[in-house]
Write a structure and sequence with these properties.
Blueprint: E1 9-11, E2 14-16, E3 20-22, H1 37-48, E4 53-60, H2 80-92, E5 96-102, E6 135-136, E7 150-151, H3 154-173, E8 178-183, H4 188-193, H5 208-225, E9 232-237, H6 246-258, E10 263-267, H7 275-278, H8 292-302, E11 305-309, H9 315-323, E12 329-332, H10 334-338, H11 342-349, H12 361-372
Parallel strand pairs: 3-4, 3-12, 4-5, 5-8, 6-7, 8-9, 9-10, 10-11, 11-12
Antiparallel strand pairs: 1-2
Helix pairs in contact: 1-2, 3-5, 5-6, 6-8
The structure holds flavin mononucleotide (FMN).
Length: 396
């Protein structure tokens, strides 16, 4: 079959061998911002499983912006060398290494999700040392009972814009080929965008134009510091249940495109609640592809490439999203945790031949032989796809 999912795509000077992306996912496993062999194995296995673009988890441009004390850092040159080892490993399998650059603002200094996620009762030192101060656009806490952050001064804002640029320079030295700026999920850039979190009365607050200023400045500075031939993505919360609507995202996407953002990665939520982010809500639940309509609308109305994410699980579902022109790339999060070999599984289900050339020969040679055997043996992951009996249809 002729598959769009497995058709390579050129983004500036970088070629992805397919349109499957490992969505950035924090593993909260660093000490003082440092990576370990965990990250080599964790990220390496998606590259070896055939993923085209492998995103390193949300990595902080400033230690104050760590969501937890176990987030990775890129605020210092000392982080470059250990990352180089990981990017080289990923590239060895024909995958492209990407990194998400982030600052959590008032949502920093929290416990890990499986430890309750809330603000830490005992304030630890900053990763790397020193007192850990919370900063945000305004002195407004994330929840009424959360700590109140300090409102950033204009000088503080300027330093943070530059911090993204400096981190991009380090990311380039570390061998990453794609940078994604994290402007979603209620973190610092989203806090600036939001009228609920941003009560500033200067040029960074008030009107939509003013609230978008920080996001656009970060994108502009990152683009300036990031090599011309390397693509730049920005993840946004397309809607957030707190006053930010899809029309605002379309306006933002137009401005981001104008300053050199190549792909808008369309997530949602995180400002008022975390349910949208991963599509988990006891009350209503979120169906397959619940954020795809945002990627579709932003793509159409802002005329920019988009990446869809959120409950994209099945091969035929991912293929249809691309074929129907709803997004240019599909990012897969938890289903990759479930099956890091998702791309080769998808290739078989879509009938892409040979398919196993997406992975190292040490695996591919044997799996292809088995797949061609006269007596058919189906892999343990075998299902017909989203239209198989008992599957729920994707929400549109
Ligand atoms: C364990 C975990 C960690 C995550 N960490 C990040 C992150 O670092 N940056 C980010 O933008 N989104 C993060 N997310 C959101 C995912 O990237 C993705 O957008 C979300 O899980 C929906 O996609 P899925 O249904 O394919 O998992 C995380 C999600 C999970 C489950």
């Amino acid at each position: 079959m002729d598959s769009l999912l497995f058709t390579p795509i050129e983004l500036r000077g970088i070629r992805l061998k397919n349109r499957i992306v490992l969505s950035p996912m924090l593993t909260y496993s660093c000490v003082d911002g440092n990576l370990s062999d965990w990250h080599l194995v964790h990220l390496g296995k998606y590259a070896a499983g055939g993923t085209g673009l492998v995103f390193m988890e949300s990595t902080k441009v400033d230690p104050r912006g760590c969501t937890t004390p176990a987030d990775p850092g890129l605020w210092d040159d000392r982080f470059i060398a250990p990352m180089r080892r990981i990017t080289a490993f990923i590239k060895q399998f024909g995958a492209v290494p990407g990194i998400q650059l982030s600052h959590s603002g008032r949502k920093s200094r929290h416990a890990r999700p499986w430890e309750g996620r809330g603000p830490l009762d005992i304030v630890p030192d900053l990763p790397g040392g020193g007192p850990w101060e919370l900063v945000a656009p305004s002195a407004v806490p994330h929840e009424p009972d959360h700590p109140v952050p300090s409102a950033l001064t204009r000088e503080g804002i300027r330093e943070l814009v530059q911090a993204w640029g400096k981190a991009a320079v380090r990311a380039d030295k570390a061998g990453f080929e794609v940078v994604e700026i994290h402007a979603a999920h209620g973190y610092l850039i989203h806090q600036f965008l939001s009228p609920a979190a941003n009560r500033r009365e200067d040029e960074y607050g008030g009107s939509l134009e003013n609230r978008m200023r920080f996001a656009v400045e970060v994108a502009t500075e990152t683009r300036r510091c990031w090599p011309e031939h390397k693509p730049l993505f920005m993840r946004i919360s397309a809607i957030d249940s707190a006053g930010w609507e899809i029309e605002h995202s379309v306006e933002l996407a137009k401005r981001l495109k104008a300053v050199g953002v190549d792909v808008v990665d369309c997530s949602s939520g995180g400002l008022a609640d975390m349910n949208h982010v991963a599509g988990t809500s006891g009350a209503t639940g979120y169906g397959y592809g619940y954020q795809v309509p945002h990627a579709e609308r932003i793509r159409r109305e802002a005329d920019v490439m988009t990446m869809a994410v959120g409950h994209i699980v099945h091969a035929d579902q991912a293929e249809a999203i691309l074929r129907d022109g709803r997004a240019d790339l599909v990012a897969i999060g938890r289903e990759m945790l479930h099956n890091p070999n998702w791309p080769i599984d998808a290739a078989q289900k879509l009938g892409v031949k040979p398919g196993f050339d997406q992975i190292p020969s040490a695996y591919g040679y044997w799996l292809e032989k088995r797949a061609r055997a006269r007596v058919a043996v189906q892999p343990s992951t075998w299902r017909a796809g989203i239209d198989a009996p008992g599957e729920r249809r994707p929400s549109r």
